[in-house]
Amino acid sequence: MYVDNARITQAAKLSKEIGELFESEQMEEDGKSYIVLAIEAYEQAAEFFGMEDSKSNTSQCLGKIAELCSAALDPPDFVRASSIYDELGRRCLESNLLKFNAKGYFLQAAMCHLAGGDAVGAQQALNKYDNLDYTFGDSREGKFARGLVEAVEGFDVEGFSTACFEYDRISKLNPWQTAILVKIKRSIDEGGDDEEEDVDLT
């Protein structure tokens, strides 16, 4: 009804609220999990916000989609998540106010590559980000991403733990990063426990 009446912003806000409801209430419908339903609602919200050129709200919804695809969906869709984080990082570089946020998104994109078992893709992404943002390579995020890639490629559990510890010491790892890092560590730690809470990143 909002769309039919050209009230696109209201339709976007409602779609976002619906996504939040599916996520928080964990409601299932038509045989779909609440995660899938939440993603679909956020997709619609992002589309509507995009039609109104509301860049901030569009990015928020896309970020939620990437977060759910990588950390909640079963099985995870790391390819889509990395692609979204890549896009969000590029968008940030177009704005002087937001360009410093690009590094975080590029780190998340690289982490999704690694969690999906694609160390080569992660390395290629980092090379690309170095060209897009000349400050990325020397940033905390850039150095952390390189350390993770090197540890995965070398099956270096100790190096991985050191990289996580050094980054966490200055920039505390958030729940999403912790969950993704646990998945990455499992891929290189043959002695890793199956229970996520029992995997020690450091």
Strand and helix map with partners:
Blueprint: H1 8-25, H2 34-51, H3 55-71, H4 78-93, H5 102-115, H6 119-132, H7 140-153, H8 157-170, H9 175-188
Helix pairs in contact: 1-2, 2-3, 3-4, 4-5, 5-6, 5-7, 5-9, 6-7, 7-8
Q: Kindly state the number of beta strands.
A: 0
Number of helices: 9
Distance between the termini: 52 Å
Low-confidence stretches: 191-198
Beta-strand content estimate: under 5%
Structural class: mainly alpha
Q: State the shape.
A: globular
Percent of residues in helices comes to 55-70%
Q: What is the radius of gyration computed over CA atoms, rounded to a whole number of angstroms? A: 18 Å
Pattern of helices and strands: HHHHHHHHH
Indicate the mean pLDDT.
Answer: 91
Largest sheet: none
Characterise the protein shown here.
There is one protein chain. The protein has 9 helices and no strands. With 202 residues, the protein is an all-alpha fold. It has a domain at 110-202. The longest helix has 18 residues, at 8-25.
Comma- or semicolon-separated keywords:
202 residues, mainly alpha, 9 helices, 69% helix
